[in-house]
């Protein structure tokens, strides 16, 4: 250290000289301590400085804080390093050599110690997961040099500008992809096949035979495909309120089942013809199903760094019907305040009231149908008036119809929805909170007991500026990494299930408890639906059946949905319902249902299940049937 003293002394002299006023400088520095100058002397200094500024014709001097003498106070020896350059240089040297040593160690260390201390552990709290404790993979990825070389783990088939980029999710996937469930297509396909056998193999009912083999369908859709049967026959064979399959396992199935490994070209022909079918044994789907059904994986995925309250729906019974709140703003606020006040008092009440009475729905339908008919007449009258501007009678007809429309609107608002109440309540809760409600024994189930529906949304590029997940609070963008077969790729790797990837509307997942019923409805776009766990029963209807399904019309909060309770149909108010024809299919883990545009679907959860779907554009095919129903 003695050899450095001349150099350190030189540095000290330079630093001392820098504290003095430099020649030709406009900066004045006072070297005196604050305790050595009286108040009057400081006032005199400020007065002289002001005079010098005035004399300099506006040329201002920079004000510099006076150096503080407290650092020279021997009563504070722990601050001595701030004035002793030798101590400063010693500390700097120590810090520099420590940094070099640690960096060298990390560059050539294999990371084993890090993995040993961060091996995967479950928290004492049931279901809680801390991604900071997850095993980060093999030792070859633990050192700093590995990271500097760019060997950061990349999730297989992930998209650059879509999906999850968070460290916690990458660590979780590394653990499962490299250690617990490394990629093995044969193992994954065998896993979902074993799941189907465990749940039971469904066959066609003796009363539901088809001229084609549903497991070995023709190369092109046969005439009349898929076959359908009277809805009352289907529900009599297996009532929709009963989630337990019939002992004979015979169902009214008309859909073809294709094997992804051997029937892909055949399935593509059916898709081009806009015909529904089920795809099985897709390795990509099987991998996801195997991972999601792996013990503990979903708890880690949904209760880790993304321990977020997500959309959940509540119903006082097993029926769930989509709705849009059309009540006046004051009424909505009043209802919300009532719920909030009740919860503060500790009352366990909810804002969902079930699907509603069929008779009241019939009355609402009549009011809205009359209004819609008048609107169509008014539109025709206005079009005629534009072509005949000098026709006074045409103008009078427009005014008359406008008056009738306004009157019908008031009547609808006063009467048609007078007894309407929200079928379900929209809540937010964590996955484990939902699971506590949903995973119950059969004695706590039943059509008249409360049911819960859990939802996940991956926004992706749904609409403008939503790729960051802004389409939904707490969105799950990792769905695009989990369900790679639903990624909106437009190149040669375009997934089979997305016909128009550029029109994708995100990925939506719904976890249903046993017995949950999603009411019959249609969507204006094609749909790809996969089941990743559990079982779901789908009753499907061709768009030509629209006229018999008694749909709630435009303007109703649950438009596009059937007013008929399929569990207990009111045939007096809906006499055309028995004319409806449908078929059914039970989806099991690893299945993907391709559902064309405007096809009707009624869904029953047969056990705790996980279903995800995505939409990608639509076709105008069968549009005339939907138009006939007023849509």
The N- to C-terminal Cα distance equals 90 Å
Helix/strand structural class: alpha+beta
Count of DSSP-assigned helices? 17
Classify the helix fraction into a percent range. 25-40%
Q: Mean pLDDT score, rounded?
A: 83
Radius of gyration: 36 Å
Please outline the major beta sheet: 9 strands, mixed
Beta-strand share of residues: 5-15%
**Backbone shape:** extended
Strand order of the largest sheet: 4-5-15-12-17-10-9-6-8
Record field, number of beta strands: 17
List keywords for this structure.
631 residues, single chain, 17 helices
Give the secondary structure arrangement, pairings included.
Layout: H1 5-18, H2 39-55, H3 85-108, H4 112-117, H5 144-148, H6 167-180, H7 185-199, E1 203-204, E2 229-230, H8 231-237, E3 250-251, E4 257-259, H9 264-272, E5 277-280, H10 283-292, H11 297-302, E6 310-315, E7 319-320, H12 329-344, H13 358-387, H14 392-416, E8 425-429, H15 431-438, E9 451-458, H16 479-482, E10 504-512, E11 517-522, E12 527-533, E13 536-541, E14 581-587, E15 592-595, E16 600-605, E17 609-616, H17 623-628
Parallel strand pairs: 1-3, 4-5, 7-11
Antiparallel strand pairs: 2-14, 5-15, 6-8, 6-9, 9-10, 10-17, 11-16, 12-15, 12-17, 13-14, 13-16
Helix pairs in contact: 7-10, 13-14
């Amino acid at each position: 250290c003695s050899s450095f003293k001349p150099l350190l002394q030189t540095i000290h002299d330079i630093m001392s000289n820098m504290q003095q006023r430099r020649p030709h400088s406009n900066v004045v520095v006072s070297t005196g301590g604050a305790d050595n100058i009286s108040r009057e002397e400081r006032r005199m200094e400020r007065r002289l400085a002001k005079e010098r500024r005035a004399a300099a014709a506006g040329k201002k001097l920079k004000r510099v804080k006076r150096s503080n003498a407290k650092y020279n106070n021997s009563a504070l020896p722990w601050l001595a390093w701030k004035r002793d350059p030798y101590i400063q240089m010693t500390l700097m040297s120590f810090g520099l050599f420590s940094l070099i040593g640690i960096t060298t160690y990390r560059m050539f260390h294999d990371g084993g110690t890090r993995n040993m201390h961060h091996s995967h552990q479950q928290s004492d709290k049931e279901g809680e997961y801390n991604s900071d404790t997850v095993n980060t993979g093999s030792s070859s990825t633990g050192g700093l040099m590995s990271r500097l070389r760019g060997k950061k783990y990349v999730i297989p088939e992930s998209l650059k500008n879509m999906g999850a980029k968070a460290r916690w999710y990458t660590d979780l996937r590394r653990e499962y992809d490299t250690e617990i469930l490394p990629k093995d297509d044969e193992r994954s396909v065998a896993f979902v096949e074993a799941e189907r056998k465990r749940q039971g193999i469904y066959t066609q009912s003796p009363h539901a035979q088809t001229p084609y083999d549903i497991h070995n369908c023709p190369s092109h859709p046969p005439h009349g495909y898929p076959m359908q049967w009277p809805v009352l026959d289907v529900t009599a064979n297996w009532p929709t309120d009963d989630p337990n399959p019939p002992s004979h396992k015979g169902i009214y199935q008309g859909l073809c089942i294709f094997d992804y490994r051997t029937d892909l070209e055949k399935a593509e022909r059916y898709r081009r013809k806009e015909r529904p079918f089920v795809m099985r044994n897709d390795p990509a789907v099987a991998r996801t199903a195997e991972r999601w059904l792996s013990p503990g994986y979903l708890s880690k995925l949904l209760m880790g760094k993304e321990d977020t309250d997500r959309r959940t729906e509540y119903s006082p019974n097993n029926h769930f019907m989509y709705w849009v709140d059309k009540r006046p703003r004051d009424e909505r606020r009043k209802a919300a305040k009532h719920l909030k006040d009740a919860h503060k008092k500790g009352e366990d009440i909810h804002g969902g009231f079930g699907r509603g009475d069929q008779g009241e729905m019939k009355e609402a339908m009549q009011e809205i149908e009359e209004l819609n008919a008048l609107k169509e007449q008014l539109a025709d009258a206005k079009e005629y008036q534009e072509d005949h501007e000098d026709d006074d009678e045409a103008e009078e007809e427009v005014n008359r119809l406008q008056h009738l429309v306004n009157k019908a609107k008031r009547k609808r608002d006063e009467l048609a929805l007078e007894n309407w109440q929200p079928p379900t309540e929209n809540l937010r809760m964590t996955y484990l909170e939902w699971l506590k409600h949903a995973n119950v024994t059969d004695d706590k189930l039943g059509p008249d007991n409360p049911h819960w529906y859990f939802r996940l949304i991956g926004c992706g590029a749904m609409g403008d500026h939503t790729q960051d997940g802004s389409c939904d609070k707490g969105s799950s963008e990792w769905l695009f990494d989990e369900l790679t077969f639903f990624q909106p790729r437009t190149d040669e790797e375009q997934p089979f299930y997305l016909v128009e990837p550029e029109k994708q509307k995100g990925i939506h997942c719904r976890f249903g408890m046993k017995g949950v019923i999603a009411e019959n409805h249609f969507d204006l776009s094609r749909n790809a639906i996969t089941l990743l766990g559990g079982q779901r029963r789908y009753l499907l209807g061709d768009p030509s059946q629209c006229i018999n399904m008694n749909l709630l019309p435009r303007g109703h909060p649950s438009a596009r949905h059937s007013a008929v309770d399929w569990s207990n149909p009111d045939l007096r108010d809906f006499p055309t319902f028995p004319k409806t024809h449908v078929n059914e299919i039970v989806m099991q883990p690893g299945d993907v249902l391709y559902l064309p545009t405007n096809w009707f679907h009624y869904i029953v959860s047969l056990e705790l299940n996980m279903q995800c779907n995505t939409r990608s554009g639509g076709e105008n095919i069968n549009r005339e049937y939907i138009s006939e129903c007023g849509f």
